[in-house]
Design brief:
Order of helices and strands: HHHHHH
Largest sheet: none
Length: 131
């Protein structure tokens, strides 16, 4: 019963997140308040529907924007554990956070998975062997 209701709000909240991050600077009071509200909403969402993988990825994105890569990575991992439909995207963003932490081997590993997953999704056959 909760899933359809949250699904409707989730779609709108994604648009709000995009709008505020596009038109307001990082520390603008409007953006700070909106992101705080969205973080509250997504946290409530995953508490009520623990297998909602997109909620975890949205929380991770908000935490990444706030400069909290450790916390963001933990939520990206949770999104993967709950079978996020776009795992390539999650690996890409997780790789960015690992690079931010200066974990270059971890970032490279995430980016390799991203490239491999994106290629498979596009039916692109590798012409070289992966190490």
């Amino acid at each position: 019963m909760l899933r359809p209701i949250f699904s409707m709000f989730h779609s709108v909240s994604g648009k709000i997140f995009w709008f505020t991050s596009t038109y307001f600077p990082l520390l603008h009071p409007v953006r700070v308040r909106v992101e705080r509200g969205l973080l509250w909403f997504y946290t409530l969402e995953v508490r009520l529907i623990p297998d909602l993988s997109d909620g975890y990825s949205k929380i991770a994105s908000l935490l990444a924007n706030k400069g909290q890569p450790n916390e963001a990575i933990a939520y990206y991992i949770r999104a993967l554990e709950t079978h996020h439909p776009d795992s390539a995207k999650i690996h890409y963003f997780m790789g960015r956070q690992k690079a931010r932490q200066e974990d270059i081997p971890g970032a490279i590993s995430c980016f390799k998975i991203f490239v491999r997953s994106a290629a498979e999704a596009s039916n692109i056959q590798p012409e070289f062997s992966h190490r």
